[in-house]
């Protein structure tokens, strides 16, 4: 059995080669760029008016003749003499001879002439060609995670496809004769299966696109055949249950027979002690505890950072901070603990109902409080390490 610190170190030091793909820009939200994106154009591609008003060729008088109009999208380039101008609108191309744009609120117009009360300054309200970015410059760097704003920015440069790190193909294997798919009738001794549901939702929140669910009965050959198929066809395999030491827990022996190299098995923590992590040349395997809260905690702490790293995300794990605990707490035993908690401002409350089988507390929690194995007593107001859960 290893410590939480040792387990996290092993997970973070596992190496693999991220895969790349070309995706449509509109489908790239959440993905990370695997290559720099270079702008194919200047932005703006022409001298652009920053507001509605009048583009002017300056002279020593506050009166100007207006000889035309330039709406946004027009390619007309009026020739202006000093003392002349054109009506212009936000985003429109400023004529070459115009030296400034004055906003319409500062102008009095009578027929084809305007008079200006305020001082007119050169180069006001004109966005220069390439002000935002010039042709050939890097628009977004490799490693940037795309957001709606980033996608809109690249779309404004005329880009339709980008190179990204792909999300891994992930299998979820659920073990247990007692488990029934939600929606089907329960027989005596059966419970509804929830681990695959919560894991699939958590994976989708990470922008994982390829997820396949498998179910297997508590039988050695069935378990072996299902696990073998999953590790053959997927980059990550998550096994729910069957990893403990009961008479019907076959996962550990199956993984050994299939030559999955054990990187660790069992962590000195609560919940989630019987966690297995291993690999072969192509696939990473996590065998998660069967209890729902244990399974989800192990996913957040050990699986999520791996997936984010494969997808090129720099901030691999969940956000960690410190908060003042709202009441005294005493830890039983010598294992580290991840406790379901609720953050409110600068404080955090450890919630009632910490059983590894209970998800009700998890449903209202927004954080986990981490208590190291060498810490047993915490007083109200003490700062504790707090892991912020995904919203």
Automatic annotation (TrEMBL):
<dbReference type="InterPro" id="IPR038987">
    <property type="entry name" value="MoeA-like"/>
</dbReference>
<comment type="pathway">
    <text>Cofactor biosynthesis; molybdopterin biosynthesis.</text>
</comment>
<keyword id="KW-0808">Transferase</keyword>
<keyword id="KW-0479">Metal-binding</keyword>
<comment type="function">
    <text>Catalyzes the insertion of molybdate into adenylated molybdopterin with the concomitant release of AMP.</text>
</comment>
<feature type="domain" description="MoaB/Mog">
    <location>
        <begin position="171"/>
        <end position="309"/>
    </location>
</feature>
<dbReference type="Pfam" id="PF03453">
    <property type="entry name" value="MoeA_N"/>
</dbReference>
<dbReference type="Pfam" id="PF00994">
    <property type="entry name" value="MoCF_biosynth"/>
</dbReference>
<keyword id="KW-0501">Molybdenum cofactor biosynthesis</keyword>
<comment type="similarity">
    <text>Belongs to the MoeA family.</text>
</comment>
<dbReference type="InterPro" id="IPR005110">
    <property type="entry name" value="MoeA_linker/N"/>
</dbReference>
<dbReference type="InterPro" id="IPR005111">
    <property type="entry name" value="MoeA_C_domain_IV"/>
</dbReference>
<dbReference type="InterPro" id="IPR036425">
    <property type="entry name" value="MoaB/Mog-like_dom_sf"/>
</dbReference>
<dbReference type="InterPro" id="IPR008284">
    <property type="entry name" value="MoCF_biosynth_CS"/>
</dbReference>
<dbReference type="InterPro" id="IPR036688">
    <property type="entry name" value="MoeA_C_domain_IV_sf"/>
</dbReference>
<dbReference type="InterPro" id="IPR001453">
    <property type="entry name" value="MoaB/Mog_dom"/>
</dbReference>
<keyword id="KW-0500">Molybdenum</keyword>
<keyword id="KW-0460">Magnesium</keyword>
<dbReference type="Pfam" id="PF03454">
    <property type="entry name" value="MoeA_C"/>
</dbReference>
<dbReference type="InterPro" id="IPR036135">
    <property type="entry name" value="MoeA_linker/N_sf"/>
</dbReference>
<protein>
    <recommendedName>
        <fullName>Molybdopterin molybdenumtransferase</fullName>
        <ecNumber>2.10.1.1</ecNumber>
    </recommendedName>
</protein>
């Amino acid at each position: 059995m290893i410590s939480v610190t040792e387990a996290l170190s092993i997970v973070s030091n596992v190496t693999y080669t991220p895969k790349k793909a070309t995706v449509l820009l509109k489908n790239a939200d959440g993905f990370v760029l695997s290559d720099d994106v270079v702008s194919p154009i200047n932005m703006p591609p022409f001298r652009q008016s920053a507001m509605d008003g009048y583009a002017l060729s300056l002279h020593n008088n506050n009166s100007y003749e207006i000889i035309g109009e330039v709406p946004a999208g027009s390619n007309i380039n009026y020739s202006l003499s000093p003392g002349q101008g054109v009506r212009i609108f936000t985003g429109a191309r400023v004529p070459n001879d115009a030296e400034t744009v004055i906003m319409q609120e500062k102008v009095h117009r009578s027929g084809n002439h305007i008079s200006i009360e305020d001082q007119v300054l050169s180069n006001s309200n004109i966005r220069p060609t390439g002000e935002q970015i010039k042709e050939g410059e890097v628009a977004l760097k490799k490693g940037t995670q795309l957001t709606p704003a980033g996608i809109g920015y690249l779309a404004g440069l005329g880009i339709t496809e980008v190179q990204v790190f792909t999300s891994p193909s992930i299998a979820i294997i659920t073990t247990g004769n007692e488990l029934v798919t939600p929606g089907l009738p329960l027989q005596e001794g059966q419970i509804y299966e929830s681990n695959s549901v919560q894991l699939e939702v958590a994976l989708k929140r990470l922008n994982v696109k390829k997820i396949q669910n498998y179910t297997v009965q508590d039988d050695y050959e069935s378990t072996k055949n299902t696990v073998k198929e999953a590790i053959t066809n997927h980059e990550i395999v998550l096994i729910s249950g069957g990893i403990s030491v009961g008479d019907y827990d076959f996962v550990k022996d199956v993984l050994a027979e299939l030559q999955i190299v054990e990187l660790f098995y069992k962590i000195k923590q609560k919940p989630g002690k019987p966690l297995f992590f291993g690999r072969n040349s192509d696939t990473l395997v996590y065998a998660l505890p069967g209890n729902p809260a244990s399974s989800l905690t192990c996913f957040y702490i050990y699986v999520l950072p791996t997936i984010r790293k494969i997808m090129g995300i720099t901030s691999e794990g969940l956000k960690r901070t410190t908060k003042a605990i709202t009441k005294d707490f005493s830890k039983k035993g010598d294992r580290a603990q991840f406790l379901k908690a609720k953050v409110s401002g600068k404080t955090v409350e450890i919630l009632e109902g910490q059983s590894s089988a209970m998800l009700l507390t998890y449903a209202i929690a927004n954080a986990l409080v981490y208590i190291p194995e060498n810490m047993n007593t915490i007083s109200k107001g003490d700062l504790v390490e707090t892991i912020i859960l995904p919203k």
